[in-house]
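Morning run. Coffee first, then this:
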Amino acid sequence: MLTAGCFASASALAAPPSVTTVSPLGIRPGQTSELTLSGSNLSGVSQLWTTWGTSVPVTTADGSVQFSIELPSETPLGLHGLRVISPGGVSDLQLIVVDDLASVAEGQGNNAPESAQAITIPGAVDGHVDNLSRDFFQFEATAGQQLSFEVLARRLGSPLDPSIFIYDQQGHELAYSDDAEGLSGDSQLCHTFKESGTYLIEVRDIRYAGGGGHFYRLRVGDFPCINVPVPMGVQRGVSSRIDFAGMSVDDADPSHLTVPADWPHNWYPVSTRRVNGTSSAFTFVAVGDSPEFLEREPNNTLPQANNVELGTQLNGRFNEPGDIDRFTFTATNGQHFVFKGVTRNQAAPTDLVLELYDSGGKQIGRVDDAGTAEGVLDHTFNADGQYTLTASNLIHEGGDLYAYRIEAQPFQPGFDLAVSADHINVPAGGVGDVTVNVTRRGHNGPVQLTMEGLPEGWTALPTIVGTGMNSGILTIRAPESAATANVLDHVSVVGTATTGDQEVRETATLNDSLRARWNQVSVLPRNVSLAFTAAVEPAPDFSLSIEPAEVVLGQHLKTNVKVVAQRGDQVDGAIELAAILDKTAFPPEATLKLQPIPAGSNEVTLELAAGAKTPQGPFTVVLKGTHKKDDATHTAIAAPINYRIDPSLAMTAAPSDRLLKKAGELRVKVDLTRNPALSGSVKLIVEKLPAGVTAAEVIVPADQSTGEVVLTATGDAAAGEFTEAVVKATAVDIEQVTVTAPLGKITVE
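And here it is:
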């Protein structure tokens, strides 16, 4: 239990750190870089967590913190994640570029062509655009020199919608890029200069929006302009050649790699330069265990279709407008497969259309996109035979940019998980929470949530996303002794469920939460999608516990749960209680009558009820308590309320014999199983008896679970069998609670 002394010290400790600015936005492998992070609540920051390792600060203040980073030379180029850790917890994830281009900071006063900032090529500039403003840079180019220009803004989480212009000394526009296809609204272009001289770059927001948060990284060099690798996926342990798709990739040097068989991730970093180039472009390639196939032209017509094995992952590119790629495979009756297009979320601009044809050429399936994601073609084959999958671009565009991947997998009922935040800060000795959203794929039953990788003393409290529910609250308890200013970077939110005789296990991704923070960016760096972390924040000013730990009730029934508060010295008023997720916290017709814990009291009893449509099974709901006093607001997360909906009443009926003589009796033993939430007497009657056979009503008292009904036959009852008679049990006080049990075949003679 948390002590009052622990509570008293909590409010004086720091809030979680927040980072708003990273400078520079790019650092070079094999070199030492000075990194400055600005934001709030940074006093006491003790660590920098990154996707390549950790560092300790050189200096720290409330508004900024500096790190000296010795970046290993083997660190992969590309986007990486970072966070800071303090006694107040861990910050949100921010992005930085590991780049082989040297960085300079944008100077002051470069908002007009005549005051453009001179930069060295190749190189990169880290800057921000002010509102209603433009940034100008000047550089030297030689006749015939080809240069690439790229602005990373949206892909770094910036709200800037960048556009880039190239001008000659007379102010003539030579090249322009607004939304480069596939790059989440960022800008990219390649240009060959006809004459030697001085040239200008303009960077601005397309709507002239701006401010300190509208940051960007401008890259200028001889790197190829790429979007994705080709193929977009490789198989573990298999040697692969990687080419690239993009607006300028003709002389991009292929990458030859073998992803280790024990590589733990579903991605692998790749980079390329032009032949004899000095600067790099970078991306990720998907990694899996299934064979990968790269389409071979010509395959536009059915006789030219590429033959593949069903279950092979398919990769290709639409090399010219109107290009169609066809893949032929053999399937057997009853095979159920899912074909999923992968393009835009991996930076390919292709709007993929998938069509499935049987051996007679009849179309049996078609799918386009699903919102911002590519479509999923789900099909069960109803005959043995040869089938053809056709891939095309919806608006028939073609060229080096238009790559795609098709994931082909046997259908397995299951689900996908997404967390609502990229980290969780858990109070020392208290409970932290994170929302987990469930996307179901043929599994409508319970999903059990937990957090793996927690150290000794930490506990993932029992959490069930119940039948038909699409979200749940996972709660974590940290011990009072948990060390502050320490990050847990090997934790993951995991869900498990049983479908048929198969156990399904999935790990939650951060993608939805990151997109929500980063302007719904379509392309996320693959190395941060599972980078969930946890840290300790100061102990809460009060805590909440639940009694009992689990309750059972049934349809039409009610039960009570008790919420108990352990108050700190400053928490003496009413504590308001609310269900996290509010209206989506409960299954249909389940309710919890919320009321505050009154001032002067440490507990309150709440009524939990289930209705006729509440499905059976386990469920979890989590409450949040709020206490306000003067200008201070204190909150605490309660341990979960775990409840299970079981049958309200169950019954078996066992006749003592199968023969009922005329003018005789037959005794039937009835065994009742009451739900723990059901008290009171139960009435027994027998229905659907034949003429001449009767049974008197029986009341089974509340303290008994066994009763007996007696069938009586008159002397003139018709001889023969009856099979439809049932014993009906009804709760005396709750008429909606009723159940029947068949008597089976009984013979009158």
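Residues 17-98 form a domain with the Immunoglobulin-like fold (CATH 2.60.40.10). Good start to the day.
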